[in-house]
Write a structure and sequence with these properties.
Keywords (chain A): Cell membrane, Membrane, Transmembrane, Transmembrane helix, Transport
CATH topology of the largest domain in chain B: MetI-like fold
Protein name (chain A): Carbohydrate ABC transporter permease
CATH topology of chain A: MetI-like fold
Helix content of chain A: over 70%
Largest interface: A-B, 101 and 107 residues
GO biological process, one term (chain A): transmembrane transport
Oligomer: heterodimer
Strand content of chain A: under 5%
Pfam family, one (chain A): BPD_transp_1
Family (chain A): Belongs to the binding-protein-dependent transport system permease family.
Number of domains of chain A: 1
Structural class of chain B: mainly alpha
Radius of gyration of chain B: 26 Å
Distance between the termini of chain A: 34 Å
CATH superfamily of chain A: MetI-like
Radius of gyration of chain A: 23 Å
Structural class of chain A: mainly alpha
Number of strands of chain A: 0
CATH superfamily of the largest domain in chain B: MetI-like
Chain lengths: 274, 309
């Protein structure tokens, strides 16, 4: 469809208006994080702080546990994402490249578990963690992120697109399945690994429900949990809380900007939502 | 044949090429590759699902010994007034969210499919809410909704009196719906955008030669050809909505007066605030049944409105 010039201008205007509306909460968050307590409680609201209060960020990190929580989130997310990529890619390799009895039945079982809502499994998982004495440990935070039926499925779809002749070439050169996995499949699946990587990164970094259940002590709070709990304790310190919120959002925005293409094409492909 | 002989001489590692012969050949390698996944599947899916079945017919506060109670949990669900109330709230949330998200998501997709200046920046901005941490943005929204907060301040000049967004039962759900729309809208947009981009341009060219207006093109070409994407987005969108936790936990905790307590949040309340693991497990099976039933009904109904090329 060819658009006339006036149409182009009005389209651009509407798109910009929509972008402004979607950005507004972020802008308010940043503005509030730089205000004094008096400014943030003023009515009518002050949109731009007179003197940016960068000390709010220091206060959030040092006095309100955000620094420790940032560290915890970074450790938990890194270990989970790397672990999930390894576990899922190994499993996906077996489903894509190996022949063994019951393969399709097992794969179907993987798919079937994706239909069960999170709420069905999370109650028993909690009771398992409780019985194993793992409440309030990094293990409890990390182990549910190490495996994902969806991740196995997604990577298998990517692996299936790689021509089998490359495997044959490796075999002729005297390689085995481990070589094919490491030197053929993995390097050629960067897009798929990137897509699963960003899904699991966002999912684990942002998750609140599971930490709410299994973590009680402040030293183990992840960022979302620290933000949620700060809300109950320091209800008046909006400016410091908003500084914490900005700190939580920056890493996801950076990772998203790096892997935006994979993220969007994979949602369109699979309909997955973090 | 020469090639056949060659293949025979190096036949040992060629299991991939000969799927029918010696199917078990890769079994041990497969077990090694699959071991971590199978362990994960067992610990995170099979064992919990099995336990959930047992919990559903038990009474357990996690401290005292577990007690088998038969189907009494499900009988209690059937007569639980709060359960029906949360079901109504869930319906309100789901319908409100789907209507807003589908309409606005379609508008956004129609805007973002055009090649205009700065389109990459616009797309990034539209997708930002989707990726950011729920806990962080829900707290911001909570303050934005306060009586003297920025949203009421923006509405003031339009002649709208301050709205008690999160403190009144009749306003809390609309407020929650607006926030979730802001957060999840672009997920719809991504799927609908992919649908729009797969519609061949010739359809529009041919119809405009025949004198069709933009409006007619939208109703006769775009919407019918977009219906498979809309169907897909509807199913997955509702399944996701039925399992929302974060915004309700942060913004309302199910209140005021249970007005935002959805079925999934009720499961959390019963299980982890009242420590009734058995009853919560029974409720979670009811949620599963609702999702299954809904998906089946949609599958049957799709013949009436989904148009496959």
């Amino acid at each position: 469809m060819k658009l006339r010039r006036r149409e182009t201008v009005s389209l651009q205007l509407v798109t910009a208006l929509g972008a402004a509306a979607l950005l507004f909460p972020f802008l308010w968050m940043i503005s509030a994080s730089l205000q004094t307590l008096q400014e943030v409680e003023a009515f009518p609201p002050i949109w731009i702080p007179e003197v940016p209060q960068w000390t709010n960020y220091i206060e959030a990190v040092v006095n309100y546990n955000i620094g420790r929580a940032l560290l915890n989130s970074a450790v938990v997310t890194t270990v989970s994402v790397v672990g999930q990529l390894i576990v899922c890619s190994l499993g996906a390799y077996a489903f894509s490249r190996l022949r063994f009895p019951g393969r399709d039945a097992i794969f179907l079982l993987f798919l079937a578990t994706m239909m069960i809502p999170h709420y069905v499994t999370i109650i028993p998982l909690y009771t398992m963690v409780w019985s194993a004495g793992l409440i309030d440990t990094y293990t409890a935070l990390i182990f549910p992120g190490l495996f994902s039926p969806f991740g196995t499925f997604l990577l298998r779809q990517f692996f299936n697109q790689i021509p089998i002749s490359l495997d044959e070439a490796t075999l002729i050169d005297g390689g085995n399945h481990w070589h094919i996995y490491l030197y053929v499949i993995m390097p050629l699946s960067r897009a798929g690994l990137g897509a699963l990587g960003i899904f699991s990164f966002l999912g684990i970094w942002n998750t609140l429900f599971w930490p709410v259940l299994v973590i009680n002590s402040k030293e183990l709070f992840t960022l979302p949990l620290a933000l949620a709990m700060a809300q109950g304790q320091f209800v008046t310190l909006i400016h410091v809380q908003m500084a914490g919120s900005v700190i939580a959002c920056v890493p996801v925005i950076v990772v998203f900007l790096m892997l935006q293409k994979q993220f969007i094409s994979s949602i369109a492909l699979s309909g997955m939502k973090q | 044949m020469a090639t056949g002989q060659k293949a025979q001489t190096v036949s040992a590692p060629w299991s991939i090429l000969r799927p029918k012969k010696r199917r078990h050949k890769d079994l041990y390698v497969a077990l090694l590759f699959l071991a971590p996944s199978l362990l994960g599947l067992f610990l995170l899916q099979v064992l919990p699902i099995g336990t959930a079945l047992v919990l559903g017919v038990s009474e357990w506060n996690i401290i005292d010994p577990i007690k088998f109670v038969g189907l009494s949990n499900f009988v209690e669900v059937a007569t639980d007034a709060t359960f029906y109330h949360t079901l109504e709230n869930t319906l309100y949330l789901t319908v409100g969210l789907e209507v807003l998200n589908t309409f606005l998501g379609l508008c956004a997709a129609l805007l973002l499919k055009n090649a205009m200046r700065g389109i990459d920046l616009y797309r990034t901005i539209y997708f930002l809410p989707l990726i950011t941490t729920w806990a962080a943005v829900a707290i911001a929204w909570r303050y934005m909704y306060s009586l003297e907060g920025p949203i009421n301040a923006l509405l003031g000049p339009l002649g709208i009196d301050p709205i008690p967004w999160l403190s009144r039962p009749e306003w809390a759900m609309p407020a929650v719906i607006i926030t979730i729309t802001w957060k999840t809208l672009s997920w719809k947009t991504i799927i609908l955008l992919a649908g729009l981009q797969s519609i061949p341009n010739e359809f529009y060219e041919a119809s405009s030669i025949d004198g069709a207006s933009r409006w007619q093109q939208f109703w006769k070409i775009t919407l019918p050809l977009l219906s498979p994407a809309m169907f897909f987005a509807l199913i997955i969108g509702i399944i996701n909505t039925l399992q929302l936790f974060d915004p309700i936990f942060i913004m309302t905790d199910g209140g005021p007066a249970d007005s935002t307590r959805t079925l999934s949040y009720y499961i959390y309340t019963r299980g982890f605030q009242n420590l009734r693991m058995g009853y919560a497990a029974a409720l979670s099976w009811v949620l599963f049944a609702i999702i299954l039933l809904f998906t089946l009904v949609q599958w049957v109904l799709q013949k009436r409105w989904v148009f496959y090329q």
